[in-house]
Design goal:
681 residues; alpha+beta; 11-stranded mixed beta sheet; 5-stranded mixed beta sheet; 22 helices; 27 strands; 41% helix; elongated
Length: 681
């Protein structure tokens, strides 16, 4: 087995194998070994470095083995080590993550013994025996202080003792080593850690290494979705669907406050409906899925599988609306739609996806426009307050507007790779569809008039936006208001010792938090180590982890760790498990995480928007992968030319405009508005 590095998933798999051994450095909060310290980016903070260990001989007795207690300067550090008794060693302080196995640790201790022996020609078998005796006394002293075989410093001391014994009797040591390796291989096979096992398949590519592959890995490993059997389709798994259900709950409340009622329209739409609005059919024709046969017979009229519902909604409204007394009508439906995309990506762009689509009819153009503006405001507030995803709200260019709309309003979010995501839209339809479907009403003056309409929607695409906005190398980072599980409770016990008391405390805390309305789950799986659980739930983006061990039970306390703040900085020890205190504490931390995630994402976005005064500035900015903000008065054709040259499109003309706009970067003429160009999903 070789030294394993970098990925969160590697950490998961190795921790499942329970094979980590190493030295713990409290000053910087990490394990290390000679094989890996050369890659560490934070060695300057270590008070006890690997090189120091390498230079400290284990034998002869004239240079005693360093006291293990010197590596543990505080009780919190000891507890931190206890949490990692099964693995999960890492280099903190912003450095890379490193992991090493029993094999690498054995090589370390062997090399120390070998160097020490070779550097001292006076070393004899008596010296080795003396060292064995002293090492045995050290282990006894550690256990007398209350430590057990599961504590990392005891494990390290025992490992050194084994190496010394092997040095004294190489044949016996080799036989025991072979036996242990065979046992370890068998365990890895049983755990699925061997080649072809389930854990061997679980990998999350670092986001910084390959963003696209990372995204797909996260969706798979976090059990958000999977590919459907038909090309371009996906199966949304319970964990992913729970986020969509939260979205439904919150938005339904907002819709209801504005008089919107839920309903449902058929999925199959007569093809003739689509052709009634010229620009509508032109815009959607390439994406239509059409049914031509049913019941073994050719249909008299082909049926379109719903790409959107403006046409069928208007067909029904023309029958329901008679006079001004029937207005306004405000409807919404939660449904699936189909668009025959050529390039698909789970959540972001698939042949079938889930969404909500709102449709309203009004007596005046002003009312319809006001409704469209109101709904994009609802969406943007949801994005920022619930998803912690900052958005820029504005109006689409005519090229980018919805087919058949008078105006399209959008909210644009910056993803972790700096591409833009259209996260939600709202359309002022004017009376375009009313003309096509003769949706009229008798007004107060006795004249028949066309209704004015709005339509608006968000989809499961927002879930992809959350992943790409907040995720990191470990996997998901979910905002608390959206997270299916806000708190994961993890029990820590030593074999079967203290299991009953620890589980009782975990159950009590779980009950307290559930009663307080917090989405909490306890991971009581005794086939997995605490280290494995830590890594697994970190990968799934759970905002808070609560750890409970025997010492916490004695103190009626727990350890609280934040997902958004890695390492020891995100941990708080000795948090009271008393009901009122704990509930208040968790609520405060959840709010802090929610706010911190929004602020972090907003800062990242703002740092990557560049104001451009010339076309050369725009081209350079787009080439650098950033958003270009510039004055614009160009034509549709000139907009298309920029898209062909740079791959960027006008994402929107923001509602918030600067006091001074300047000259258009294309024409040089004074511009009325600035816009944002960016590459997008």
């Amino acid at each position: 087995m070789t030294t394993t590095t970098t990925t969160t998933t590697a950490r998961r798999h190795l921790s499942r194998r329970n094979s980590f051994k190493g030295w713990w450095f409290p000053s910087c909060g990490r394990f290390s070994s000679p094989a890996i310290t050369s890659s560490c980016t934070n060695t300057s903070s270590c008070t006890t470095s690997s090189s120091a260990l390498n230079s400290t001989p284990v034998v002869p007795a004239a240079k005693p083995i360093p006291s293990v207690s010197s590596f543990f300067s505080a009780s919190s550090t000891i507890r931190e080590n206890e949490n990692r008794k099964t693995g999960g060693g890492f280099c903190g302080g912003g450095g890379k993550r490193f992991f090493f196995t029993q094999t690498s640790f054995t090589s370390f201790t062997s090399s120390v013994v070998t160097r020490s022996s070779s550097s001292s020609s006076a070393a004899t078998s008596g010296d080795v025996a003396d060292a064995i005796a002293k090492q045995g006394d050290l282990i006894k002293a550690l256990k007398a202080s209350g430590k057990t075989n599961q504590d990392e410093d005891v494990k390290a001391a025992v490992a050194v003792l084994k190496e010394l014994k092997a040095k004294a009797d190489p044949s016996a040591g080799e036989a025991k080593k072979n036996k242990e390796e065979n046992s370890s291989d068998k365990k890895k096979k049983n755990d699925g850690g061997g080649k072809g096992g389930k854990e061997a398949e679980a990998q999350v590519t670092p986001r910084s290494e390959d963003f696209s592959k990372w995204y797909l890995d996260v969706i798979r490993e976090c059990e958000l979705a999977d590919y459907g059997p038909a090309r371009g389709t996906m199966v949304i798994r319970p964990y992913g669907f729970a986020m969509w259900e939260t979205t439904q709950t919150i938005l339904n409340e907002q819709f209801g406050m504005r008089g919107v009622e839920n309903c449902y329209f058929p999925q199959l739409i007569p093809y003739s409906f689509i052709t009634k609005e010229a620009s509508h059919v032109e815009g959607f024709a390439p994406e239509l899925a059409v049914v031509t046969q049913g019941g073994g017979k050719t249909l008299e009229e082909p049926l379109v599988v719903r790409p959107t519902s403006e046409t069928i909604v208007n067909h029904m409204l023309s029958q329901w609306i008679q006079s001004y007394r029937d207005l306004p009508i405000k409807l919404n439906q939660w449904c699936n739609v189909h668009r025959w995309e050529m390039r698909t990506r789970p959540f972001i762009r698939t042949l079938e996806f889930l969404w909500q689509e709102g449709h309203t009819a009004h007596a005046t153009a002003e009312e319809a426009n006001a409704m469209a503006m109101e709904m994009i405001k609802v969406y943007s507030e949801f994005a920022e307050k619930t998803l912690a995803m900052p958005v820029i709200v504005g109006k689409k260019s005519s090229i980018e507007s919805f087919a058949g709309a008078k105006a399209t309003f959008t909210m644009e979010a910056m993803m972790g790779d700096k591409k833009a995501l259209q996260a939600g839209t709202s359309h002022d339809l004017g009376d375009n569809f009313a003309k096509a479907f003769e949706t009229t009403f008798l007004d107060t003056d006795g004249k028949a008039k066309n209704v004015y309409q709005s339509s608006w929607g968000v989809s499961t695409r927002m879930m992809g936006g959350v992943i790409m906005t907040h995720g990191d190398d470990k996997g998901l980072t979910l905002p608390p208001k959206l997270a299916p599980v806000q708190v994961i409770v993890t029990p820590i016990w030593q074999k079967n010792k203290d299991k009953e008391s620890v589980m009782a405390s975990c159950d009590a805390i779980t009950k307290i938090l559930k009663e307080a309305g917090i989405r909490v789950k306890i991971d009581a799986d005794d086939t997995k180590s605490p280290g494995w659980k830590f890594n697994f739930w970190e990968m799934k983006g759970v905002p808070i982890r609560i750890e409970i061990g025997p010492r916490d039970v004695e103190k009626n306390a727990c350890v609280v760790a934040r997902r958004d703040v890695p390492g020891k900085e995100g941990k708080e020890f000795g948090v009271s498990a008393e009901k009122a205190s704990l509930v208040e504490k968790i609520h405060v931390i959840l709010d802090e995480i929610q706010d911190a995630m929004l602020e972090k994402a907003r800062k990242f976005r703002d740092e990557n928007i560049v104001d451009c005064a010339t076309m050369a500035d725009l081209e350079k900015t787009i080439e650098d992968g950033k958003w270009a903000r510039c004055a614009w008065e160009g034509s549709d054709e000139e907009e298309k030319e920029i898209k062909e040259k740079t791959g960027a499109t006008i994402r929107c003309f923001p509602f918030e405009q600067p006091s001074s706009v300047g000259n258009c970067i294309q024409t040089g003429k004074p511009a009325k508005e600035v816009c944002i160009f960016a590459k997008s999903y």
